[in-house]
Amino acid sequence: MLTDKTIRAISGTGKIQKFADGGGLTLVVTPAGTKTWWVRYRFDGKEKTLTVGQYPTVTLANARDAMFAAKKPSCPTRRNWPTSAMAEDLAVSGRGE
Q1: CB 59 within 8 A of CB 87
Q2: Which of 19, 20, 83, 88 shows the greatest Cβ crowding within 10 Å of its Cβ?
Q3: Whose CA is closest to 8, among 64, 56, 62, 52?
Q4: DSSP string of 27-81, one letter each residue
Q5: pLDDT for residue 22 is more than 60
Q6: Mean pLDDT, all residues of the chain
Q7: pLDDT of residue 43
Q8: Sorting pLDDT into bands at 50, 70 and 90, what band is 49?
């Protein structure tokens, strides 16, 4: 599992890097060093990716909350897969409970 300290220490290396946190949550780091949260899931048997938002705007805790919220059957994001704007709204507002 990732920690905030580990995430802050990660920098761009000239290639895309992916760091798994667990449960489908992944931190993707671009060659320039931009850090973006992805949630990977399956829909109709196909793997899909939902962009949650960029670190540090969306913190590790907020990204985890959004990932857990998106997995709840009652979550509007889950019923209307996928809209990254809805996921980012859940992550930033902390409504993923």
Answers
A1: no
A2: 88
A3: 56
A4: EEE-TT--EEEEEEEEETTEEEEEEEEEETTS-HHHHHHHHHHHHSTT-HHHHT-
A5: yes
A6: 82
A7: 72
A8: confident
Distance CA 66, CA 97 (A): 9
pLDDT of residue 7: 97
Query: How many angstroms separate the CA atoms of 94 and 79, rounded?
Result: 19
Q: Which residue has the tokens 């780091």?
A: 29
Give the pTM.
Answer: 0.75
Q: CB neighbours of 95 closer than 8 A, spacing ≥ 6?
A: 69, 89
**4-93 CATH, one of 3.30.390.10, 3.30.160.390, 3.20.20.80, 3.40.50.300:** 3.30.160.390
